[in-house]
Design goal:
By secondary structure, the protein is an alpha+beta fold. The chain is built from three helices and two strands. It has one domain. The chain has a two-stranded antiparallel ribbon. It starts with a strand and ends in a 17-residue tail after the last strand.
Length: 79
């Protein structure tokens, strides 16, 4: 929530289903069993998916930042 990330289905891009959320949560424990390799895998994966994401069929994406609007200064109102 802090970084504006959300979990979506890796095939459709739609919000993940309840089953995917539950599966992803339970698979965190499986990913930690081999010395945390399933979590560290994110650093080496092209799509930045851990084992829990790959098995659950999910991916974490960040929301796009809104573009900043240009600021114009009115020279007539100078002090």
């Amino acid at each position: 929530m802090i970084v504006g990330a959300r979990i979506v289905d890796s095939k459709t891009g739609e919000p993940a289903s309840i089953g995917q959320y539950i599966g992803r949560y339970l698979l965190y424990f499986v990913a930690f069993i081999p010395f945390g390799l399933g979590i560290v895998w994110v650093a080496f994966d092209r799509q930045k998916q851990g084992w829990h994401d790959k098995i659950a069929g999910t991916v974490v994406v960040r929301k796009k930042k809104p573009k900043a609007e240009a600021i114009s200064f009115n020279s007539q109102n100078s002090i």
